[in-house]
Amino acid sequence: MSLLTQRFRYVGRRLLQAIPTVLAIVVINFLLLQLAEGDAADVLAGEAGSATPEYMAQLRQKFGLDQPVAVQLVVYVKNILLLDLGHSFRHDMPVLTLILQRLGPTLILMVTTILLAVGVGILLGLLAATGLNTWRDNIISVFALVSYATPLFWVGLMFIVVFSIRLGWFPVSGMENIAAFHIGWVRVADIARHLVLPALTLSLFYLALYTRLMRASMLEQSGMDYVTTARAKGLTERRITFRHIFRNALLPVVTMAGVQVGSLIGGSVVVESVFGWPGLGLLAFESLFARDLNLLMGIFFLSACLVVVVNLVVDIVYAFLDPRIEMR
Amino acid sequence: MAHAVRSVRHTRSAASRLREFWRLYRRNRAAVMGLLILLCVVVMAATADFIYPGDPFNLAGKPFAPPFGEFLFGTDSLGRDVAAGIVHGSRTSLLIGVVATAAAVTLGTLIGGVTGYYGGWLDDVLMRITEIFQTIPFFVFAILLVAVMKPSIQSIVIAIAVVSWPAVARLARGEFLSMRNREYVQACQVMGLGDARIIFLQILPNTLSPIIVTGSLMVATAILIESALAFLGLSDPNVMSWGFLVGSGRTHLRTAWWMCTFPGVAILLTVLAINLVGEGLNDALNPRIRDR
Description:
The complex is a heterodimer of chains A (328) and B (292).
Chain A: H1 3-35, H2 40-48, H3 53-62, H4 69-81, E1 87-88, E2 93-94, H5 95-130, H6 135-149, H7 152-166, H8 184-221, H9 225-232, H10 237-259, H11 261-275, H12 280-289, H13 293-321
Antiparallel strand pairs in A: 1-2
Helix pairs in contact in A: 1-4, 1-13, 2-3, 5-6, 5-8, 5-10, 6-8, 7-8, 7-11, 8-10, 8-11, 9-10, 11-12, 12-13
Chain B: H1 2-11, H2 14-26, H3 29-46, H4 48-51, H5 82-118, H6 120-135, H7 138-149, H8 153-179, H9 183-190, H10 195-231, H11 242-249, H12 258-285
Helix pairs in contact in B: 2-12, 3-5, 3-12, 5-6, 5-8, 5-10, 5-12, 6-8, 7-8, 8-10, 9-10, 10-11, 10-12, 11-12
């Protein structure tokens, strides 16, 4: 079997492994719906405002609530797998449409945040590790330690106080100045200006994480045998650091970046509701206020799927880039 | 080897072991500082009723009073004393942080320990479950759990414990897996000790250090999750908390910055202190990196 087919088989197996995960999430959703006070019809009717007994009976029949729980579960799973996430009465729209509308802004925010956090985190970790126990290392370590302990929503609010209200450098909230009807590059620039504070806020925690990880990873690699070999060959320290240690030290950081996507979505709920960034997180916040449980569950399901997809992509990229990955 | 170390330890008195622990802990000066800050927060929580008697939700003076005047940290839009809210809120943060972590650590250790010790299909199932838990966006899951159960101290504790236990389970599983074929465990099995006694009385004490370190860091995470939930409006409406204070002050950010600022500083300092203490515990308890 050639190496390439082996790799494709691996990818196929990873795809198959993702299915139980998605199913498990659907089942968790279903169990939560069972846990909620009253049945789904009560929840939905409550959201619809008023409900006649006929309407309730109709709802119960529609959701099969007169059926045994096992049958209900099968129907529920079937609906979700057909991407029928239900209806949001608050918005009077299908949940799926609502979510897809908000997916773009969230992706913009998340991609910017990941790039910022990984890039700057690697740089700071490198700076700290190469100047071990100097003032540079100490300052970076203290910064990472404090950022790691800071609540995201609070940093966001403080950024708004300092940079938006006092200094007036950046807008307070939103994604773009809608009233200005910008088009083309002017619009891109406008969105970028709105993006600065939310992306900075969201990346702060992960920046701290990657900085610490990169520093530890550099230190670990620098104790390896191949470094001694390189030194014995007479390579310069500079060359050893950048060509040898740095490259190997990157691996755990990049892996971690893939793992962190799930928690990033959680962080974006907080950051988006602080900055009024019109993405999935703000939608979750709004649905919380409107007590729109159906919408909240749809967001949970789709964001979990997003994480599954991202992890899959990271795995696949790895499978083709790193020959040492075990094809299990 | 591990058994030998343990029996040597047994011959020493508890007091001398404590002294040894403190000697190692003290070497990390940041950890000592963290411990001091944490002690201050604990004292604040314990004496809240003496420092600020009465309900922190009660009105104390005129609204929007700036800080460092009549009120140390000013008043909010309804005239409630922000400092009183912070002092009383410390109880909520510590309570939820400690109880949720205790629940998660107990559950995680139990499940991870049993699956690590027995292995087999049980282990496979557990690994799949923890993987799923690590995939789902845990904060969104916590929001959903609290929203479904209605916000209360109890539901917040449950939500945080539910999203936190898999990390402990993975850790405990790994530790038990590496321990189950050690000589001292085999000796116990030969002696005819029951599995439960081996798991809880023999292996567990030997795996306690990494679990304690992880648990201490989890308290910090739990406090951050609790404050973020409260900020989003998911807090017990009858209980004062730091996240609630920040959340209720955000609409007045333009005119009254102090409402959000000081409760946030309280969260930051507490979480930082707990992280520092966790690192100190790691230095003092984790023999593998002790002399690095």
